[in-house]
Amino acid sequence: MPARAARYHSRVLGYFCRTALVQAGRYRAQSLLAMLGVAIGVANVIMLISIADLGRHQTLGFMRGFGADLVIVTPFFNMQSGGNMLPAQASQFLPLSAYDAVRRVPQVETAATAMFLPAHVGWGAKRWFTTLMGVTWSFVGLRMEGLEKGRWFTQQEESEHARVACIGDTVRQKLFGESSGIGEEIVVRGQRYTVIGTMRIRGRIGLEDTGNRVFIPLSTAQEAFHFKGVHVVFARYRHGAGEAAAVRAIKGALRGVLKPGEALDDVFSVFTLKDAQRLMESTLNIFRLILGCVASIALVVAGIGIMNVMLMRVLSRRKEIGIRRAVGASAALVLMQFLVESIVQSLIGAAAGIALGVGGVAAYCAFADWDMFISPLTVAVAVAFSAVMGIVFGAYPAYRAARLDPIRCLHE
Fold it and tell me: Fewest CB atoms within 10 A around its CB: which of 111, 310, 324, 389?
């Protein structure tokens, strides 16, 4: 008996699905608009969440490239509040004495510092806006990508304020095309710098193109921009020193550069790369959740469109409903029929949305030079949510259809 009932319900469900496709063709314009709304909503969910996931993976992968044994010193910002920095703090910088103190710590194997400045770089008639990074000669030893061609500047060139530069791949393409540009002279703030190396391709991290950078000696940058401070200090502690011991030693060294009345925690933020990764993961997860909620609004709007379409169908098919009820169809079957039609519309729209979403993510990955990846869970959630929208917003029209008086429907 249960097997017979299951076969009966499966036949009924199959019939309702075929009817739903017939009705979608009959009310073509209305159905297409409703499905388009669902498709846009599903594509939004897939694209926004997938791009957020890819950005998270790219950013954390970039950070892990520095290695786990890295300590970072910046002007103070609140790690516990999600890395919030007040506007006044955002313009602060570290004195160069902070870098000198950190690199003399016995537990520190390698230390480097950097300053970040926006600038235009030119070659001949070409000009390009980039991020100019003034860094110490030891900076390249802390980074994963290193050089693609040429060489890095030496400690002597840094001490002599040499006007040499290593350029990112984006800068190279914009100025020199297919050429490496090594040996050419570029112009920054009216001064000429000889290109001595090109950096290995890294691609984008979020909206930032890591290839759109020009590296020059820190001393040269400070002289050219009349800027005596730095923005960040990196320190790699020695193997076996221990993370906690290295952080304590660095904090102790930094206390020696404080002015009278200053507290260390009010001036400097000292944290490890692991701390930065935890903060970044927390921030990106919140960002991902917000994007998912924003994208879901489009699905809710699409659900309202489906409800309007189904209500119009109920009104236009009153006679059909009356005939079905007159020949013995129960109110439950009528309700199920209209509910199935609503769900089928949602799922067809979801299928189109998957295609749009995958295409959008592929286009963005091609633009950002990222490896393509979409989590199956993201697609499943988007489709499930669209099906739920079909049930929720199709329930009221289906209920209206089931509650119609068959006698009055036949007399209309």
Answer: 324
Q: Going by DSSP bridges, is the β-strand pair 70-75/268-272 parallel, antiparallel, or unpaired?
A: antiparallel
| This prediction's pTM | 0.65
Q: What are phi and psi of 103, to 5 degrees?
A: -70, -15
DSSP codes, 205-274: ETTEETTSEEEEEHHHHHHHHT---BSEEEEEEPTTT-HHHHHHHHHHHHHTTPPTT--HHHHEEEEEHH
CA distance linking residue 6 with residue 13, whole number of Å: 10
Alpha-carbon distance of 290 to 40, in angstroms, equals 18
| Strands in 162-212 per DSSP E | 164-167, 185-188, 191-199, 204-205, 208-209
Asked if 234 and 112 count as a contact pair (C-beta separation under 8 A), the reply is yes
pLDDT of residue 5: 56
pLDDT tens across 118-169, in order?
899 999 889 999 999 999 998 887 765 578 889 999 999 999 999 999 999 8
Report helix angle 273-316 to 331-368, nearest 10. 140
Other beta carbons less than 10 A from residue 339's beta carbon = 22
The angle that helices 2-26 and 28-64 make with each other, rounded to 10 degrees, is 100
Q: Are 105 and 253 in contact (CB under 8 A)?
A: yes
How confident is the model at residue 83, as a pLDDT?
Answer: 43
User: If DSSP codes are grouped into helix, strand and coil, which group holds residue 160?
Assistant: coil
